[in-house]
Write a structure and sequence with these properties.
By secondary structure, this protein is of the alpha+beta class. The chain contains ten helices and twelve strands. The chain is rod-shaped and about 150 Å long.
Length: about 450
C-alpha cells in the first residue's frame, strides 16, 4: 500500500514536470503579458517607500576616437544594469528548476538611466531582451557607442594624459527612490577592460576608476555613479612628424653661422628655414583645440624657436649690411688711390701728401704692409722726375715702419667689419646658450 502511494507520487511529479517545464508556464504564473501594465508603468516596488537598488557594470571595449578640436571622447562600452522587481518571484522547484528566463524588454519597467556627458544618441539597436531571475532580479546587457564631451587639458601635448568621465544617473528618480552601486570595483573593472580591449589607436588605456557622488538642486538630491577613463596619448607619431623636424630646422639654423657673411647664401638659407617653420605652425593650428585653459607647451616650443630664428635672420641682415658697407668704403678708397697715383704720374711736382694721410691710405689697402721700394718707384717714374720726390717717398717709408713698430700695427679689417664680427660672435654665443636653456626647460616641463 505504501509502495503504491509512493509510485503515485512519482507519477504526479512526473506529470507536473511534463506539464509545467516551459518558460511560458512561468510567464502565465506571473501573469506577465503585453496587456498587463502592472510590470511596466511604475517603479516595481510593493511599497513606495522602498528604494530600488540599481547595480551597474561598465567595461571599455575600445577607444574609437578622441577629438581634441571639439573635445569629444568616443568609447565603445559594454554596460550591465541590474535591479530588483518586487512583483516578480517564483519557486524553481515547482517549474523543473527554471531559475532564469528572457523576456522582451518592453514587458518590464527599466530604470531611466542616461550618461550626462553624452552629446549624441547611440543609433545602434540595444538588446531587445531582459534576463529575469526567480527572486525578482532583472538584468540588461548592452553594447553601445558613446559620443561624449570631455574637458581636455592639452598643456603637455603630445605627452598628455586625459581623464574623461561617464556620469550615469537617473533623471526623475531621487536618491530616496533609487540608489546606484557599482557591481565591480575599480581594479576589477580596469583589469577586465584591458582583457576586453579590442583597439586603442593613438591612445593607451590606463585605468577605469569608479566613484559615487550626489547632486542637489532645489532641495532634491540625485545619486550618480561616475566612471573615469584615464588614457594616455602615444606621442611617437607627433614626435617624428612635428617635434623632430622643428628641432632639425633649429640645428640647421645654428649651422648656418658657419656660412660666410659676405655671401648671399646665408641670408637666403635662413629665410627658407623660417618659411618651413611657418608651415609647421599652420599644421599645429589644425591639431590643437582653439580653446584651452593653458597655453600648450608645444605652442610655446614652436613660437620661441620661431622667434629665435627670426632674431637670427635680423642679425644676419645687420651683419650683411655692415659687410656691404665695408666693401663700398674699400672700393671708394681704391678709386681715390688710383686717382692720386694718376695725378702723381701726370704731375712731377704735384702737391705733397702728409705722412698721416699716406699711412692711413696704405693701411686700408689689402695685403700691402709697406710702400713700394725706392728701386721700383725709380723704374715706374719717368726719368725726368725730380730727386726731391724720391727723397719724400723714402722718408714716408721710414715713417711707416716707425708707425708700425710704435703702434704694433697689423693687417686687420676696417671698423665696420670689426663690429660685424664682434656682433656675430656675441650673438652666436647668446643663441646657443638660449637654445640649450630653453630646450632643457621645455623637456623638463613635458616630463613633469
Amino acid at each position: 500500500m505504501m509502495h503504491a502511494g509512493f509510485l503515485l507520487l512519482i507519477i504526479l511529479i512526473d506529470g507536473v514536470s511534463c506539464k509545467v517545464c516551459s518558460y511560458q508556464d512561468v510567464l502565465d504564473y506571473l501573469n506577465l503579458t503585453v496587456d498587463n501594465s502592472v510590470f511596466k508603468l511604475t517603479r516595481p516596488v510593493l511599497d513606495h517607500t522602498h528604494t530600488t537598488v540599481v547595480k551597474l557594470d561598465v567595461y571599455l571595449y575600445a577607444i574609437l576616437a578622441v577629438v581634441e578640436k571639439t573635445q569629444t571622447f568616443i568609447p565603445f562600452i559594454w554596460a550591465t544594469i541590474q535591479w530588483n522587481n518586487e512583483r516578480i518571484s517564483w519557486d524553481p522547484a515547482q517549474f523543473c528548476g527554471i531559475t532564469r528566463l528572457s523576456v522582451p524588454e518592453n514587458l518590464l519597467w527599466k530604470p531611466d538611466l542616461f550618461i550626462y556627458e553624452m552629446t549624441q544618441k547611440d543609433e545602434a539597436p540595444l538588446s531587445p531582451y531582459l534576463q529575469v531571475s526567480y527572486n525578482g532580479t532583472v538584468s540588461s546587457e548592452d553594447e553601445m557607442r558613446v559620443v561624449s564631451t570631455c574637458k581636455m587639458d592639452v598643456h603637455k601635448f603630445p605627452f598628455d594624459t586625459q581623464e574623461c568621465n561617464m556620469t550615469i544617473g537617473s533623471a526623475i528618480h531621487f536618491v530616496e527612490e533609487m540608489r546606484f552601486f557599482p557591481y565591480s570595483n575599480s581594479s576589477r573593472a580596469t583589469q577586465f577592460s584591458r582583457e576586453l580591449m579590442k583597439t586603442q589607436g593613438e591612445w593607451e588605456f590606463l585605468q577605469l576608476s569608479i566613484s559615487s557622488t550626489n547632486i542637489t538642486l532645489q532641495n532634491k538630491s540625485w545619486e550618480l555613479l561616475v566612471y573615469t577613463v584615464t588614457i594616455k596619448r602615444r606621442p611617437l607619431l607627433h614626435v617624428i612628424n612635428f617635434l623632430l623636424p622643428i628641432l632639425f630646422f633649429l640645428i640647421m639654423d645654428l649651422a648656418s653661422f658657419f656660412i660666410a657673411d659676405h655671401r648671399g647664401e646665408k641670408l637666403s638659407f635662413k629665410v627658407t628655414v623660417l618659411l618651413a617653420i611657418s608651415v609647421l605652425l599652420l599644421i599645429l593650428n589644425d591639431i590643437l583645440p582653439s580653446m584651452s585653459n593653458k597655453t600648450p607647451l608645444i605652442a610655446t616650443y614652436c613660437i620661441v624657436i620661431f622667434a629665435l630664428m627670426l632674431l637670427s635672420l635680423l642679425e644676419t641682415i645687420l651683419v650683411t649690411y655692415l659687410m656691404e658697407k665695408d666693401s663700398k668704403d674699400e672700393l671708394q678708397d681704391n678709386k681715390e688711390d688710383k686717382h692720386k697715383l694718376v695725378q702723381t704720374e701726370n704731375y712731377n711736382t704735384g702737391e705733397k701728401e702728409t705722412g698721416c694721410s699716406c699711412i692711413c691710405r696704405v693701411t686700408k689697402r689689402k695685403k700691402q704692409p709697406e710702400l713700394l721700394p725706392v728701386e721700383e718707384v725709380n723704374n715706374i717714374i719717368q726719368s725726368g722726375e725730380s730727386h726731391v720726390l724720391l727723397l719724400i717717398l723714402d722718408e714716408l717709408k721710414k715713417l711707416q715702419k716707425n708707425a708700425y713698430l710704435h703702434h704694433g700695427c697689423k693687417e686687420e679689417s676696417t671698423k665696420s667689419v670689426y663690429w660685424a664680427k664682434r656682433i656675430n660672435r656675441a650673438f652666436f654665443v647668446f643663441y646657443v646658450v638660449t637654445v640649450l636653456l630653453f630646450l632643457s626647460f621645455i623637456f623638463m616641463e613635458w616630463n613633469s
